[in-house]
Design brief:
Layout: E1 4-14, E2 17-24, E3 29-33, E4 46-47, E5 52-53, E6 58-59, E7 64-65, E8 70-71, E9 76-77, E10 82-83, E11 88-89, E12 94-95, E13 100-101, E14 106-107, E15 112-113, E16 118-119, E17 124-125, E18 130-131, E19 136-137, E20 142-143, E21 148-149, E22 154-155, E23 160-161, E24 166-167, E25 172-173, E26 178-179, E27 184-185, E28 190-191, E29 196-197, E30 202-203, E31 208-209, E32 214-215, E33 220-221, E34 226-227, E35 232-233, E36 238-239, E37 244-245, E38 250-251, E39 256-257, E40 262-263, E41 268-269, E42 274-276, E43 280-281, E44 286-287, E45 292-294, E46 297-298, E47 305-310, E48 315-320, E49 325-328, E50 331-333, H1 335-346, H2 350-363
Parallel strand pairs: 3-5, 4-7, 5-8, 6-9, 7-10, 8-11, 9-12, 10-13, 11-14, 12-15, 13-16, 14-17, 15-18, 16-19, 17-20, 18-21, 19-22, 20-23, 21-24, 22-25, 23-26, 24-27, 25-28, 26-29, 27-30, 28-31, 29-32, 30-33, 31-34, 32-35, 33-36, 34-37, 35-38, 36-39, 37-40, 38-41, 39-42, 40-43, 41-44, 42-45, ...
Antiparallel strand pairs: 1-2, 2-3, 47-48, 48-49, 49-50
Helix pairs in contact: 1-2
Length: about 375
Amino acid sequence: MEKYQIIEDEFIDFYGRKLYRIIRNDNVKGGFVESIKNLSQEGNAWVSGDAKVFGNAKVYGNAWVSGNAEVFGDAKVSGNAEVSGNAEVSGNTWVSGNAKVSGNAEVFGKAKVYGNAKVHSNAEVSDNAEVYGNAKVFGDAKVAGDAEVSGNAKVYDNATVSGNAEVFDDAKVFGDAKVFGNVEVYGNAEVYGNAWVSDNAKVSGDAWVFGNAEVLGNTKVFGDAKVYGDAKVFGDAKVFSDAEVSGNAEVSGNAEVSGNAEVSGNAWVYGNAEVSGNAKVSGNAKVSGNAILKDVKIEKITDYIIFGPIGSRNSFITICKEQDKVLTGCFCGSKKEFLEAVERTHSNNNHAQNYKKLIDFIFN
């Protein structure tokens, strides 16, 4: 049994198309359709207010299109989905499940919005992008390309998520931030301000990337780490734990910054360098190679020196003479503590003698 009829003498001319007002069998008037193919006669699906459904678009199931919303092209609205306000759903898009598209939002291209997702305000979801789960996209945000926003994630303000990027869990991307490439932002991570996260980078945990910071390459920023200011993290670098990279600092290569370490100013940390503990690298300092810095302060390149390979492990040793600090492998301590450790481990063999000569040369 048909649930509604087209009122043939009540129509509007809409961009060269004749759209007809519909009326339910209980005499409740609805919105406008181009033909009976636009709205299913089955289920509770309905078009109300001044909403318009035309072209090859279909509304079915228990879906509802209301307000001044427009659904057109080959778009589908199904399930318990709602399209309202001045929203537009077009192209080959599909809005389904319990999803809601409202305000001045636009969903177009081949995009999909489903689950309990919400897209509203002036947000756009386009191309092959998908927004699902309990995700929310709003403000002037854009999700495009093959990007996915899911879980409880939020993308808002003027933020853009594109390419093959994925934002999920409870992650947030907002401000004027841009997330693109094959990036993953997840956990409770936040990317905001004018920050860029691109390539194959991953930002997770409770990490924040903000300001004008850039995170790219195969980098990983996680834990409670923060990258901000005009800082750049790239290559295969890792910034994690409670570490902070700020100012104009750069961390690259296979470098790692962790613990409570801070890299700031115009400092560079690169190569296979490791900066951890309460270490601070600032000013114009450059830390590179196989340097290991823990619980020290480096402001210029002469604040430390690296030797190696040396010892039974053919490893490198980092010495900060002015701070009486020797670092190698898992060891971090004073000159005295290092010599005591050498004595315990090597007694007076060739490795011990080499270590002692090196310490004597540097400190004396």
